[in-house]
Amino acid sequence: MEKHPRILISAVLAFLIVGFLSVLPTRGQQPKVTLPNSQGTFYAPPVARADASQETTVGSPDGKWALKMKGEKGKENVVYVFSILSSSDGSQKEIFRKTVPTTSIMSIPVNTFSPDDKYIFLKEMGVGGTGYLVFSVSGAPLVKDTLTVEISGLFADKYPDYKITDVTGWGGVNLIVINTDKSDGSLGSSFWFDVASRSFIKLSTRFN
Amino acid sequence: MVSAFLIFAGFFVVSNPSRGAPCANPGSCKESLELNVDNQTSGIFNGQKITPPKINLAEKVDPKKILGEETGTGEKHIYVDLTTQTLSAYQGDALFMQVPISSGKWFPTPAGEYTIWEKIRATKMSGGTGADYYYLPNVPYVMFFSGSGISARRGFSLHGTYWHNNFGHAMSHGCVNMRTVDAQKLYYWVDPPADGNIGLSGKDNPGTKITIYGKAP
Fold first, then answer.
1. CATH code, domain carrying B91
2. Does residue B96 sit within a domain?
């Protein structure tokens, strides 16, 4: 008989706890959202366009620098010229140029600058696939006499069972974020590419 | 009886992770809410040392130089879409800003309706353990928000970011990371206005509303 009141009290308490928790302000609940209909100009960061005939500029996250890409289209080739612009004094310095066939397109990813503004990465889409070039903002060689490092080739040599699906930005001062698929098409890991050591680090979590 | 309580409490915490953490930056819960500038110490993020931007609190900033002449009318409202990792700021029907952000990866940014209760020029944020440990002095242009069951002392905020550049992708420990150049613009636009390097909302000085919605990929 004595057990019954205990069970009853436990049940009532449990019920009260659940009831109390359920009336607390809910967190993570999705609000209803209706965005205003807006027209006109507004502030937004420049978005890189993969159009060789246009000039594209993408700023660094701190607003101090910008990378400008200008494509000069010929009959068979396009010459891409990349320059660094300083927002403090308005100066401009060419740091890199590359000639590619007209079947290839170069572009500046939105997250191109490393957080400390030391490095930049570019995307090159061609018939043979997509490449990612890293180089120094100063225009100095990245490795001995080489101006750039190309990530895709290095990655394919090191991890033949994975395929790069996207290079999204910088996870740290030297760390480029790489997402992959496995060669069977399933979702692969994310990797860092450490520019300082030019090595890859396989990650336990994925950066979607 | 005790075990029943523990089971229910445990279930509740597990099913609602935002309740489990004491604050957005567990290593600096109280400190992060205060104006703090340290131009001597390095930061750490993702196992890498990083030099924070130097901040001079004595520097006078004219918001007009940052924003230009403001012509908008109506209520200011910020929308953070976690699905697209985008922040849109409106005044009335006019879109003031639309920029990529990074929401919580290691800890989810809570969806809900919020109001900015304080903004400060810079502070220190730390937390995480092991490889996820972070120590970040001089986090710039911090706009704290509260509401939807998230108290002010939890320290969730929109702020500038100097330690990564992976915007458009979840990358934070719960706050809304913005490019520093975008955060600066938003900081001088939102209410409450700053008195020096601090702006506190009040009855006659309400903060800008924020709606956070969607789900981070």
1. 2.40.440.10
2. yes
- Provide the domain count of chain A: 1
For residue A54, count CB atoms less than 10 angstroms from its CB and return exposed for 0-12, middle for 13-18, buried for 19 or more: exposed
Gap from A174 CA to chain B (nearest CA, Å):
8
| Collapsed DSSP state (helix, strand, coil) of residue B167 | coil
Taking all residues of chain A, what is their mean pLDDT, rounded to a whole number?
A: 85
Q: What is the pLDDT of residues A9-54, one digit of tens each?
A: 766 666 566 544 443 444 457 888 888 876 555 666 555 544 545 7
The verdict on residue A133 lying in a domain is yes
Q: Report the Cα B30 to chain-centroid distance in Å.
A: 15
Judge whether B5 lies within some domain: no
Domain that holds residue B144: 32-213
* Helix (H) or strand (E) run with residue B5 in it: helix B2-15
- In total, how many domains does chain B have? 1
ipTM: 0.88
User: Cα–Cα distance between A88 and A69 in angstroms, integer?
Assistant: 19
Q: Give the residue numbers spanning the domain of A173.
A: 55-202
CB pairs under 8 A between A and B: 163
**Residue reference for tokens 């928790």:** A21
CB contact under 8 A, B88 and A35: yes
> Which residues of B are less than 8 Å from A21 in CB distance?
8, 12
Question: What are residue A101's DSSP bridge partners?
Answer: A77
**For residue B80, what are its two tokens?**
């953070």
Give the residue from B163, B170, B83, B182 showing the smallest Cα distance to A170.
B163
- N-terminal to C-terminal alpha carbon distance within chain A: 58
Residue B18 falls inside a structural domain: no
Instruction: Identify whether B114 is part of a domain.
Output: yes
Residues B23-57: tens digit of each pLDDT:
999 999 999 999 999 999 999 999 999 999 999 99
Read off the DSSP letter of residue A146.
Answer: B
- Are the C-beta atoms of residues A93 and A146 closer than 8 Å to each other? no
> Could you give the percent of chain B with pLDDT greater than 90?
77
CA–CA separation, A118 vs B51, rounded Å?
12
Q: Which band of pLDDT confidence, cut at 50, 70 and 90, is reported for residue B9? A: very low
Whether B112 sits inside 8 A of A31 (CB atoms) is yes
The pTM score is 0.86
Tell me what pLDDT residue A21 has: 47
Alpha-helical (H) ranges within chain A are 3-23, 151-158
